[in-house]
Give the backbone structure.
Amino acid sequence: MVPRYAILAGGESRSFPPGDPFLAAGVEPENAEVLVLLGGAPYRPDPAKAAILIELGTECLGVHTGEAAGEEGSNVLGFARWRNGDDPPSKLVELVRQPRTHETALAAARAVLEAAGLTVAVCADQAGRIVDRLLRPKLNAALRFLDEGLASAKDMDLTCRLGLGYPEGPIERVERGGLAHHYDVTRALFEVYGTAAYAPARRAVVAAQRRDRTRR
Amino acid sequence: MNDQTAIRTVGVCGAGGTMGSGIAIVAARAGFRTICFDTRPEALERAFQDTVAFFNKSVERGKMSREARDAALGAMSRTGELGALAECDLVIEAVFEDLAVKQALFRELDAICSPLAILASNTSTLSITEIAAASKRPERVVGMHFCLPAQLMKLIEISPGLLTSEETFRKVWAWAETAGQIPVKTQDKPGFILNALLVPFNNDAIRLVEAKVAEPADIDLAIKSALGYKMGPLELIDLVGLDTQLRLCEAFYPITLDPRAAAPPLLRRMVAAGLLGRKSGQGFYRYEGRAMFGSA
């Protein structure tokens, strides 16, 4: 049986934007086994709930729960639906657990999300989780190759589509999601990992600087 | 292109291997006389049987007529004598990925083939310019990197070395298009486009497993679901072989010094343990069975 869930909304959610059917299916918090905190809604521990899901941006779950030398974990999980910039959210939910996360909480969270037709991948509480941690360095490399003249953007994209069966190449993907968005994500990853692979690529820096200039 | 310089006969070195046999299928299917060379007669014979099975399956699936199959098979010949490639207009090598091996082969081909013949390397990691340096015709040496399985994948990365002539580049580009392939141009840099993006990406996925960020199945699921890839990185590594991934790392890293290209310790341990992926029955996943793509 799928646990009932309640939505506690702060600001707008990147995982469940307005109109998403997941929002309408929530019940009142007192009737829910699972709480879903969206858009920065404040977290308060509630051990009576089967699970509490906190929507994450680029931050780790530990920012909300605190950490305890590798012993952290409770009925609280983090999650985010992966999005490429302002594209609609993908079906993927990265469900973030801590070392001592209760297995019952994980099962309840998974049940709620899968019942909503989403695909759940479980990961540890690391910056970038799975997709951004793997994808962003590759997009950085493609942007660098473009600068270095390895191949044209068109040929790089075509190579990835034909050679690897990707639905789109790295340049078209990063440009569609927005180079400034790529900058924001990679800057957050670079702050945590400090390795060149995550350092925002030149073209992303340029895009972010242009965005910031127009905001002033 | 005038008749004197047209490519009519194609030689494939290493045709007993997976890549070489796939390239030979591409050439023969397009109507080129195709001479398959390999020093291992048993590998050549096995590749030929796989090729027959592939063409039969293509007929069954309605992708090829019986006449076209018979013509393609009729265009193919097998040899263990390098001298049989003397009449080739284009020789494509897909031998062991080692600079000295490829250079030695090109030296021999220099002496055997017509001065007008083009020598192409299917290398995925080595420098075309360095391979060409062993040849007396560096202007007629070019990179032609096919994708596995070559008989199904349309892409060819075509890379001119520093001394490759425009004419050579144009001729192989035209040949690729005539053969029904889709060429892209890349610089002569380690991994060209495909492997330069893929090898570090795959390593990053292995590092996520090693760092216990997620299980292989969750990593593959996340990548396929979020990005629409047909295979996850760990499924792909299992397909190409963990030993191949390790060899690619060892070819790239000393040249690029890119930390993402360095072999992750877990990859080394798995290769040492014989966990090579599909070919050994276990890598990041467990498997059963072996068959050429498109033949089963």
